[in-house]
Amino acid sequence: MQAGDPNATAPWLEDATHRAFLVHDAKRALDFFDRSARQGAGFHVLDLKGAPQVSQVQEIHTTTRLVHSYALASLAGRPDRAGIIDRGMDFLWSHHRDAQHGGYLWGLDDGAPMDRPKLAYGHVFVLLAASSAKLAGHPDADRLLTDITEVLDRHYWDDGAGLFRDEFTRDWQVFSGYRGMNANMHGVEALLAAHEATGESVFLDRAGRILRFFIAGQAASHGWRIPEHYHEDWSPDPAYAGDPMFRPAGTTPGHSFEMARLLLQWWDAAGRPAGDAVAQARALVDTALADAWNPAQGGLAYTLQMDGAVDIADRYWWPVTEAIGALAALQKVDPTDQTEAWYRRMWQFAAERFIDHDHGGWFPEIGPDDRPQVTQFAGKPDIYHALQADLLPLARGLSAQASELSRIQPLQD
User: Structure pTM?
Assistant: First the structure.
């Protein structure tokens, strides 16, 4: 299936065939994930064909990403026919919210809290869900936004460093000095959404501080690759290796793409201040493409060593979606023939290898034979990455994209 007209002389962001493809893929994914609603409360994680998996575990990033994704889709004109936003907002407040100690539980197993730390990663996604729900006009968004902002301020935000701390016990005891890039990167995403939803400058200011540390500071000092893991004093910890899904060793090129897109979003929202934001974003993207693209088969390696050599060559869907988002952002502000070629290459590869044209949604990983395989991920774990790859290029701007999607409503029938 063609992701766009290969002979189009105009950029694909303006190509009617490509834009129709993006709308079609988004609608198919939403139809697939409508089946996530669990009888009673909460959500199922779905298998590759859309059937509920047997696990009773519900993790906070599943709940929050569904809320955010369906709020974004609602703004873009696709009604929430399955009631995902209402269900997710209720579950966040009634189940994930820790009434005993405050904050939000990482996960529940058949409704009972799991013995897991309270991570900044999960909490910033609560901020993202609350902000997107507010943009979509949900009546419970303000109470969730007020609560999560207070929790982040009290426990996670380190104003001296201008960064988020990572983890505590359930009752807020310090048990490690680990600091990480991943939670801060998604913190930027959430802070920018909160700024769009509220207009409050503190969110934009904090996003800028995080970006400066990791991009103008760390990436610029490490060959435009961003170290993932840090000691308590925020010095890089290149020897660290943790959870292979959330804290793999080395650097993660998919995160370079995300940070590049978020840098351009912040720069635009801040009024495009003088500086090197566009050049920095391009350096992140160009380096990640050079390091991670598989020239023989296509796709992007999951992790790299600190010198850019491939460490884990496994090919997952989400780095491709994030490369698409970053390339689209660059094309909006600083278009080049090379960026256009990469944008088209990524989408055509996704259409041929990752998009499930039979059932909807994207396969999460492909094996050496270029066919879907199941190793790191069971089923289709979320709609979030792929839906943003569909929707964000449809908005003409770099920032306030949710508001623009609400204005143009590309998903409206």
Answer: 0.98
